[in-house]
Specification:
22 helices; globular; two-stranded antiparallel ribbon; 3 domains; five-stranded mixed beta sheet
């Protein structure tokens, strides 16, 4: 029996996905300058590789930079070649990868879980973690997208027994390895093994260890690793031993956090679907409590079991790491979003099918409206999201929430939206409206951040305005020195000026006339580093409490 196309792809779905993904991932990519240390550093590495036409060795200021694999750099090089070296082009790879992830989720659900494809795609696209890292010039989204697509392909192969899906599994697993290293195959192996162990379907392991698929993995991944090792004999020590094993087992890069750090980070990354995920997990826990092992024995329960393991393994794995950064948890977010979509599909009794095409009835069918408590709480979460977005500019400017006229207006708008969403979710059409009305809140929030908060964030957190001030003073590439600047400002200036900056504290005082970027009010201290040379005040950047000085010969 063929699998019926109960909910075929249609123009409305496509228009919704294109519109939402286009706005959520691509709008405002250059609204603020590159932030933190990683964004400008990764972008500069890609620029240097492009300038040298070198597709093997990443370099920073001409020196090998071997902390991360090459996938993001390759994507950024192509982006720079097409669109020029800009903030938008540096962030374009992450936006593209996020869009590819949503397309893969939509296709997978349409093929294997018809009726839930649009919900699954929209819910994943609207998670705060996905939107945030889709706007980041970093390696997190390339890894998360490749990893998620690989696991979707594996499950498609597991359910259909078609090896073409295993080929895609190995290809995207190789891309994940090129994005961030051995973490992609390691996590996927743990997830698949635990799933197979719970299902007691041990025959799935030899089916997965398919020699042509393994050859595909090696053919995609191995050439770059061999080439970079041959050119840089220190690569294995720096990348594998220091930036993988040592980073996991020791706090060598000062990113120590408590063990439970990733739990609140994950819940925030799932916003505004946090409550829906908790409800979905509670429902699955009740089923497990009441039915025991039988809760995961039937074909329709394999998918939520797989998603649950997929979600939990990255959270637990990285919680055990001695080095913790928020982006590490991103690979778990698509699984959480798909668990929410599966919960909604179960409530409305969507028809699913097994590998032979026979209909699989759902245990849980609840066509009624959502409870008033859930509707109110979900509406409140959406309202809080809008309030946070409208207040982000004030917080970025004042470093705390300033209660003034604008804040009260933001609170009023958020309250109205929260009430409207609560009423819509509690209505009889709540099951079909939940993802749509939630997307409204997400779109409003993203628009508010880009329109109001982005200029403030760029002025206070990015090196772009510092570089613009230097370039306004001199269009020539004059030497630049630093005094009492943080690492983020240093890497940012090196990207925007495309040359190295010399920190005075390290004894690197340029002999030629140069510009000094220094903490505000430090002209006397700067003069002590250059005795006998004139130090002239140029301008200030009040938003970052910095001064610019000119030091003569």
């Amino acid at each position: 029996m063929k699998v019926p196309r109960t909910n075929p792809q249609n123009r409305t779905d496509m228009l919704l996905l294109v519109a939402f993904c286009g706005f959520l991932f691509f709008y405002g990519l250059g609204a603020f300058g590159l932030l933190g240390a990683d964004e400008p550093r990764y972008a500069q590495v890609a620029r240097e590789m492009l300038d040298r036409s070198d597709w093997v060795t990443p370099t920073l200021q001409g020196k090998p930079w071997l902390e991360k694999p090459v996938l993001y750099y390759w994507q950024a090089m192509l982006s720079f070649r097409v669109a020029g070296v800009t903030d938008q082009a540096a962030r374009l790879p992450a936006a593209f990868d996020a869009a590819l992830l949503i397309i893969a989720i939509y296709w997978f659900l349409r093929r294997f879980r018809p009726g839930s494809e649009l919900d699954g795609a929209l819910i994943t696209a609207s998670c705060a973690g996905v939107i945030g890292f889709a706007h980041a010039a970093a390696t997190d989204m390339p890894l998360a997208a490749a990893f998620a697509i690989a696991l979707l392909a594996w499950y498609a192969g597991y359910e259909s027994r078609k090896r073409v899906y295993l080929a895609f599994f190995y290809i995207f697993l190789a891309l994940g390895t090129l994005a961030k290293g051995p973490v992609a195959p390691a996590l996927s192996a743990v997830i698949i093994f635990l799933f197979v162990a719970v299902k007691r379907d041990w025959r799935a392991i030899p089916r997965t260890l398919w020699l042509p698929g393994i050859a595909l993995y090696l053919a995609v991944m191995l050439p770059w690793y061999i080439a970079v090792q041959l050119r840089n004999p220190e690569f294995f020590r720096i990348f594998i031993l220091e930036h993988n094993l040592a980073r996991f087992s020791e706090n060598v890069y000062h990113h120590r956090r408590p063990f439970w750090f990733f739990l609140p980070v994950f819940l925030l990354a799932m916003m505004p679907w946090t409550l829906a995920l908790i409800v979905a997990l509670a429902g699955r826990a009740r089923l497990l409590w009441s039915e025991g092992k039988e809760a995961f024995s039937s074909p329709e329960d394999s998918w939520p079991l797989f998603l649950l393991i997929w979600m939990l393994v990255p959270i637990l794995f990285f919680s055990a790491s001695q080095s913790k950064l928020p982006g590490y948890i991103l690979p778990a977010v698509p699984a959480g979003a798909l668990l929410v979509a599966e919960y909604l599909a179960a409530r409305r009794g969507a028809k699913f099918f097994d590998a032979e095409g026979a209909e699989v009835s759902r245990r849980s069918r609840d066509e009624g409206k959502f409870s008033a408590l859930f509707a109110a709480a979900h509406g409140l979460l959406c309202g809080l999201l809008i309030f946070a977005a409208l207040s982000a500019a004030s917080v970025a400017r004042n470093h705390h929430l300033l209660w003034a006229g604008g804040t009260y207006i933001a609170a009023a708008i958020a309250a109205v939206v929260a009430l409207g969403i609560s009423v819509a979710v509690h209505s009889r059409a709540g099951l079909s409206l939940l993802s749509r009305v939630t997307m409204f809140a997400v779109v409003v929030s993203v628009a508010a951040v880009i329109r109001f908060a982005a200029p403030v964030i760029g002025a206070t957190q990015s090196a772009r305005p510092i570089a613009e001030s230097i370039q306004a003073f001199s269009h020539e590439p004059v030497p630049v020195a630093l005094y009492h600047l943080n690492r983020m400002q240093e890497y940012g200036l090196e990207f925007y000026l495309n040359r190295s900056a010399q920190p005075y504290e390290s004894g690197n005082v340029p002999a030629a006339a140069h510009v000094v970027v220094a903490a505000q009010g430090t002209q006397a201290q700067v003069a002590q580093f250059v005795p006998g040379r004139r130090v002239s005040y140029l301008t200030s950047i009040p938003a970052q409490k910095l001064d610019l000085y000119w030091v003569g010969k």
